[in-house]
Amino acid sequence: MKLSVSIAGVEFKNPVFTGSGTFNSGREFVEFVDLSKIGAVVVKGVANKPWLGNPSPRIAETYGGMLNSVGLQNLGVDHFIKEDVPFLRRYDTKIVVNLAGKTIEEYCEVADKLRYADVDMLELNISCPNVKEGGVAFGVNAEMAALVTREVKACSKQPLLVKLSPNVTDIVSIAKAVEAAGADGLTMINTLIGMKIDVHKRKPVLANKMGGLSGPAIKPVGIRMVYQAAKEVGIPIIGLGGIMTGEDAIEYLMAGASAIAVGTANLVNPSATMEVLQGIIDYMNLYGVTDIKDLVGVIA
To answer: CA-to-CA distance for 192 and 68, rounded, in angstroms?
Structure first.
């Protein structure tokens, strides 16, 4: 059975990645997960300097998922290179660094500092707010998405994935725009914008009022968007959004994803990545699939 996948020239032992935002450096999961068995660890967003994130409360459960407005709290790229990269290199897995920034210059500063770091791939989070444009996310406009992709690609050494926001009217136009701007692959989808109100206190549950909805509730949206984009772009896609089981992962592969990422599931089941991987293997054994690539994009 062949589980390995190649994305932008990087070889991954299997298609199961972690979702950025649910793994910091992976230290918190080593009791439950053998990181050497994961295709890649996609770390939490890394900025050019430490970010405090948003005020609490910033996480809330919802039907079929959760809302978060953590705000990409992180210790910054210098700390990441000094402390987290050496830790992750103890394990036989690939390292994908999610880039956070509020301006194109901030993104490029992180990418530039990572040029000679021992990491395998970068993931550009274009759902970050562009402070120079009044806080509008880079990823909601095809022209802006292409601009930030082009600029960050120019200052990156490693292959660049672009993580797309689902909070748009036309995901295909944005996918095609970032492909044309030089993206080596896509990660999709990021969280949907949602809100929850405490009717007894008569106020929003989150201090930030709105947050990102993730978990099983968004999986049909993720599947649909991956399917649409895969029909129109020629670069690989990492699919995520609500993956809890091996069969969820298979859905994304069949829709056109070359690999998948497990996110929110990690927060309710720390062994989720291992169980998803085993579920993929069980499915392949059940149906006599010998190469994972034979499942990718089979839906016409």
So the answer is: 10
